[in-house]
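Side project, low priority. Logging it here so it doesn't get lost.
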Amino acid sequence: MEDEAQRLVHMNINLAQSKSLPPANRVLTAAACVLGVARVDIRLLERAGHDLHRCPAVSLEVQIAGSVITEWGLNCNRKFIVVVPASLFFLSSLLGSAVYGHLADARLGQKRTVLIACVLTALTSFLTSLSPNVWTFAFLRFANGFARLGIGICCLVLSTEAVGRKWRGQVGQYGFFFFTAGFLSLPLIAYPTRSCWRDLYKIISIFPLLYCFLLVPFVSESPRWLLIKGHDGEALDVLKKFARLNGKKLPSNLVLSNPSPPKTVGKDMGGGGSIAAEPEESLWRTKWAAQRMILVMSAGFELGLVYFGIQLTSRTSTSIFTSPWPSTR
């Protein structure tokens, strides 16, 4: 069936480029009768910026599926626009990691930040499906990349704080197993929606909302954050909950101390002046911590270049909907 579809595509491309036909009849059927996708009118492609006399016929083969490339004519002289949404998505992810990290630590806490990130991710994913043009689509991809970073950052903190030091490394890696499962499931979700890319975004916008109702209510706030913010009672309740889940019981005389007490300026014993406050601890002022952070950042940068570079530049797939990144193709 696919061979017949390709034959029809080439036949209709040659027919559409024929100058003997009047413009009103220059229509690419794009094997719609075989693949069940909408017909593509040559006049629409011309208004989108196509020049069929300069654009090779092979570049129009992608028009057999309902993608952003088809809808907004991102071929030939507009082909460079295809990479803009993906580039903005990863740029906003970088910005989102810094913003969410500050919000979670200084303002909202880990749990509320996860909740906000899930809602914003679902909202921006759904709004992406309503994009009227490619520039709105690119902006919403930027917003979606910014919104989704809060989920991964805070979930990592919440999961590793709930276990002892012995298991933190393993638990921290478990989240990437689910990332891989989601990554591999995306083409399976995209393939049934190959006739309309908007349906794909509507479907994936449901999952963050499910997390809000099914998972987040059962998540406990970070006891360390509660303790730093002065909520000693709530922090103790969380620790009691963890102990109960492990079949343990905390001592009745347990007292929690703030791991990061505020630095205050006080007077010396003789009353002759004030004692200068100690400088706040910083990751970059601690030599061993700064070295480890630079090493981790360098390794992450290199891994990202290889991992995402292969995925975003791959053209080995025979269909844009069997690619792991169908939204950028």
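Brief comment: The chain has a mean pLDDT of 74.
Revisit when time allows.
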